[in-house]
Amino acid sequence: MKNINKTIIAVIFASVSVLNCGLLEQEDRTLNELQLGFADFSDVATEPASGGASISRQETVQLIGAQRSSALNISYTIDESSTAEEGVHYTVTSSNPLVLDANTSSVELNFDLLDSPLSDGESATLIINLEDSEGIIAAPNFRTYTLTIEGAD
């Protein structure tokens, strides 16, 4: 009976020790640095049919971390490797920089897809990059959004 009691006490002691070690070694996993990023990495869209009206699109840009008490200007660029041309395949209708209002977490980047000279089976790629803005970095894994525009003619 003494051996069983000693075994039970040893198991309880070992369990408590292991649990305490796990609690003491937990690291703080909160995000201490604000970052910017696109909600999506990429998408595919079909241009309007020949002679059709433009198609409005939007992509969400988000603040990763705590909301700010003041507005934030968020700059973006069209990547030079884009094969889509502004005024031919698309038109950006948002301002640059975008303005993320105080106490909010996201803002929309708006653009229109245009009836372009793309034929069925052809495509053009629009690549948009977020820039570091007002000391807040564009998150490396979320800074780029790619839209593949497919022809409909």
Question: TL;DR of this structure?
Answer:
The chain has 153 residues and is α+β, with helices and mostly antiparallel strands.
Tell me about this structure.
The chain has 153 residues and is an alpha+beta fold. It has 1 helix and 11 strands; from the N terminus they run αβββββββββββ. It has a 5-stranded mixed sheet, with no helix packed on it. Strands 2-11-9-5 form a 4-stranded mixed sheet, with no helix packed on it. It has a two-stranded antiparallel ribbon with strand order 4-7. It starts with a helix and ends with a strand. Residues 26-31 have low confidence and may be disordered.
The largest sheet is:
5 strands, mixed
Order of helices and strands: HEEEEEEEEEEE
Gap between N and C termini, in Å?
Answer: 87 Å
Number of strands: 11
Tell me the helix content. 10-25%
The number of helical elements comes to: 1
Strand share of the residues?
35-45%
Residue-averaged pLDDT: 87
